[in-house]
Amino acid sequence: MIVAFSVTPLGVGEDVGEYVADAVRVVRESGLPNRTDAMFTSIEGEWDQVMDVVKRAVAAVEARAPRVSVVLKADIRPGVTDGLTSKVETVERHLSA
């Protein structure tokens, strides 16, 4: 499964990059395949693995912010591995045709 999620601390002002970095650090240290862009962090693995990492990433932000907003989207597709790369490669292949 692939989960794309964003964690936003609320009540800490406009500059939230430091807080978001705490969440991304948890994801990167998990060892699961992941990718971060301007809006979301995507992580790939089994349901329990991925949700544990998301929970810990949220907790890292929650430890420093009075309120946290989470947006999460999941692609649950059993048997697919390396979806973070293969889905993008498919689109790129079509674009280059």
From TrEMBL:
It comes from the Bacteria. Pfam families: Thiamine_BP (PF01910). Residues 3-92 form the Thiamine-binding protein domain. Gene3D superfamilies: 3.30.70.930. Belongs to the UPF0045 family. NCBIfam families: MTH1187 family thiamine-binding protein (TIGR00106). This is MTH1187 family thiamine-binding protein.
